[in-house]
Amino acid sequence: MKAGENPFGIPGYDATTYGESFADVYDDWYATLDDDDFIASVAASLPARNARILELGVGTGRLVKALRTLRADFTDTIIGVDTSAAMLNIARTVDLGTKTELIQMDFSQHLPDGPFDAVFVGYNTLFNLPTAEAIGQCMHLVAGCLAPQGHFHVDVVNPGITDESDHIRIRTMTTGEVVLSISRHDAAAQRIIGQFVQFSDGQQTRLRPYSVRYVNPSQLDNLAHSAGLTLVSRHADGAGTPIIEDSDRHVSRYARAQ
Which 8-state DSSP code applies to residue 102? Predict the structure, then answer.
């Protein structure tokens, strides 16, 4: 990255931009996100007692709510952190249980004190961090707050190689609204940036930008190793489907290195 260049790849973008841009539509737009398998795998790994759990990028609280349902027989202490005040304001309106704490925090810079039986980060949220160094710093912080038998659960994409870098598609189209998805994939920099451009009848055009800085599975494992974590398992989803070379998603679980 050149001196003075924005680490997210979009001028004016910062750690709060994604959440502030998507908070008002997140639960609607991503209601069909197929990641129930991931939170089920987190729940299945937890001990048969009240646990301490940390979610990175808690957003509107949808995964905490799902975990509470799966762990209805226990009164877990759950802490959720997010950089976005707008996301957290929505999460605070949801019944996430009396032992849930929500904190505005950049999880590449700071984490609440552990130990935690599980730390998890939902679909692609880890790759919202701007650089590989930030991802590695996050993993270092996670290693420092995991309980000895705890696990760090990660759900992320594994983008395939494409000859075309620029993409435009229609996300939704109704008589009163059109949402276009415009993105650019820089495979050399391992970054995808984009905008959802929302045209609504009688309203001002709304831009919803995002930036993804991904690493491949082996790079993620190297960052984990440097942070004091070791890979326990990796599958193509949370249900344990074997991963293959062209899998576009992976669910990985790490533990503290012994």
Answer: E
